[in-house]
Write a structure and sequence with these properties.
- By secondary structure, the protein is of the alpha+beta class.
- The protein is built from 2 helices and 3 strands.
- It has a 3-stranded antiparallel beta sheet, with helices on one face.
- The chain is rod-shaped, with a radius of gyration of 24 Å.
- The N and C termini lie far apart (about 85 Å).
Amino acid sequence: MAAGERGSSSLELVVIAPAMVLLLAFAVFCGRSVIADNAVEEAARAAARAASIAVDATSAQQAAQTGAEQTLSRQDLRCASLSVSVDTSGFGAPIGVPAAVRVDVSCVVDMSDLLMPGLPGTKTVSAEFSSPIDAHRERG
């Protein structure tokens, strides 16, 4: 090793290490975002399905909320804020007329533990799903 190159590997490490840490934090952020998207999509599907098999609009609202919460819990996604909006207008349709229940799920995911500049502290993830109500079942 030439005398002029002494300590150059230490200097390279000092310069490259922060960039590698930032790249790793960004990869973790992206991974968490994808996992959160998938979990919220699954929660919206489960909530819409639970609401569509309820007997009336009131129980559909409750079933959707419970279904979304249970699904997110099983997916191990903790929301700083969870919103479940249910459109139960399909329960007002007459028997024999096709109708559906639509559910919108929105979850604010905490990302502040990454502590990296430029990355947001939270990310809002939303999904919506519709599920048909049996056209030949009595609706309350």
